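Fold this sequence, please.
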Amino acid sequence: MKQGGLDQKAGTELYFNIEQGPRINGRAPNSFNFVLRTTRPVDALAPAIGNVVRSMDAGLPIIQLRTMDGVFADSVSRQRFLSQLLAIFAGVALLLAAIGTYGVLSYLVTERRREIGIRVALGASSSGIVRLVLRQGLGLTVGGILLGVLGALALARVTRSLLFGVSPTDPTTYFLVAGVILGIALLACLVPAQRAMRVDPLVAIRDE
């Protein structure tokens, strides 16, 4: 039984007959929790449960009647809220990272338009230009992703307390984020590179 919460380790539990409670603890409990296993809905059972309790003592109130799913939802409500908040922040961070990556790499490729024009004038092939651009752009991107992964792993202990049922070093999440950033980087390199290759080399040189 995880009395301290689902995120805590299960401790040692001792069970006694209810009549032994006052003698062992020195006092009688002021409340009881009963668990019923059934396939019927709570609304259908509520009248029968109330009748049984009143038959034992008409003054005993039923404080709270809820399903085990409800108990579970209440026990993880804080972790769920923090996880949702963390997911929103992570989504915004990923969006900003994608926009920043696209902007920086697109600018770097555009700045090399004159160089690309000269290479095309000297007979460089389209595939060679694309490889040149991708080598620079994806090299920077891979370096940034590696630094980001190392930073995330270093902060894993901090984020572990905010997660339940999910590891802070979940490889699927790391691969997904890295794939998104790589896709954005690829697009940021190819679009301006294709645009630069369509410009007349003489025009590109004169513009500079």
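The mean pLDDT is 79. Residues 18-74 form one domain.
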